[in-house]
Amino acid sequence: MAGWLTTKFSTIFKSPYMLYWKERSEGKRIVSLVIHLRRHILQTIPEDVMKKHEIDKALRFQDKAEEEAKTIDKKGFRLAFNVEIDEVMALDLIGKIENAFIKARKKHRSLGTALDQIELEFQKELARTLNKCEEETKEIYWHQLEPIIKVAEKPGNHNALMANVAQMFKTKESVSILASWAFRWEARGLRKNLINLRRDERQIENVLAHLDKKGVNPERVAIALSAIVKRITEHAKNEFRNAYVLWKRDFLLNLVLLRLLDIDEANMREFVQNHLMPSAPEMKNISDIEEIKKDVAKNCHVLAQGYRILVGKLRELAAIVRREEAAARARK
Fold first, then answer.
1. What is the dihedral of CA 77, 79, 81, 82, to 10 degrees?
2. Residue 188 DSSP one-character state
3. Hey, how many other C-beta atoms are within 10 angstroms of the C-beta on 188?
């Protein structure tokens, strides 16, 4: 996991405000660039070469395509990585909220009927939310991505990853279809729930701290606590729902980029073989494309590591919440 952790600690901005700003500013830009790149590789360049025989124009568009690919590689990876950092923060915050309840329970043998009921409802809703997140990992879509993720976790051999990506995108039409799915997911994207969860964590600790004061009736704390836990569960639901959508979008866009580059390279080799394009500049372009593909594959490796870390954290937290839910039920 060194690759993901190294990238995590080298990230300059880790506050939810900066992550939210980055998602907002970069998301639409990346999707727009992928649309342009898809059109250049699947339509513009082949038409210039095979129908119009405009060699200089085709070479200019190839240069432009390579620059777009480099930008997508860099910014697309950062966008997906920010989502993973976002989720690590969200899981950590929910873990702190859960620990606040556990500490309060250890300090006070009885929290009163009202607070016991609120805690039970909170544990039930949180358990339901986390179970829903776990189900996301078992969807049929993840069965499609799972082989890609497993290969991406193994660094150093981008050819193996390319073989799996080619199998996933068997035709040029499938590239367009899956890219279109990713573009639609953009509309669901922006979220402020991590910011809200951080606020919730401070508020829940402050409210539970009132139980430590002498003469405070736990039943009077229940009103404030009830409102907060409702907000927490809603913020958690929205955060995880949108985060999984965004992560799937961003990882898929990386795979679409790999496949487009693979098609571009194959096209150039065919053009040279059929004497439609000069060999020297095209072989140079092929070499450049290979370098970009290696970097995209390396980034996919880091993102796959991050996904595994998130799944592990999610399951660990879900186990704690289920345990606390069972304990809360037993007190009823």
1. 160
2. G
3. 12
Whether 254 has a pLDDT exceeding 50, the answer reads yes
Alpha helices in 10-54 (DSSP H): 16-39, 45-50
Rounded to whole angstroms, the Cα distance separating 171 from 309 reads: 32
Q: What residue has token string 């990585």?
A: 81
**Dihedral over Cα of 271, 273, 277, 280: its sign:** positive
328 neighbors 116 (Cβ within 8 angstroms): yes
3-state secondary structure the chain: CHHHHHHHHCCCCCCHHHHHHHHHHHHHHHHHHHHHHHHHHHHHHHHHHHCCCCHHHHHHHHHHHHHHHHHHHHHHHHHHHHHHHHHHHHHHHHHHHHHHHHHHHHHCCCCCHHHHHHHHHHHHHHHHHHHHHHHHCCCHHHHHHHHHHHHHCCCCCHHHHHHHHHHHCCCHHHHHHHHHHHHHHHHHCCCCHHHHHHHHHHHHHHHHHHHHCCCCCHHHHHHHHHHHHHHHHHHHHHHHHHHHHHHHHHHHHHHHHHHHHHHHHHHHHHHHHCCCCCHHHHHHHHHHHHHHHHHHHHHHHHHHHHHHHHHHHHHHHHHHHHHHHHHHHHHC
Rounded mean pLDDT, 10-17? 47
Reported as a pLDDT band with limits 50, 70 and 90, residue 186 is very low
Question: Are 81 and 303 contacting, i.e. CB atoms less than 8 angstroms apart?
Answer: yes
This model's pTM is above 0.90: no
**Per-state percent for the chain, helix, strand, coil, to nearest 5:** 85, 0, 15
Taking the C-alpha atoms of residue 119 and residue 125, their distance in angstroms, rounded to an integer, is: 10
pLDDT band at 61 (very low <50, low <70, confident <90, very high): very high
Task: Reduce the DSSP state of residue 107 to 3 states and report it.
Answer: helix
- The residue whose two tokens read 């290696």 is 294
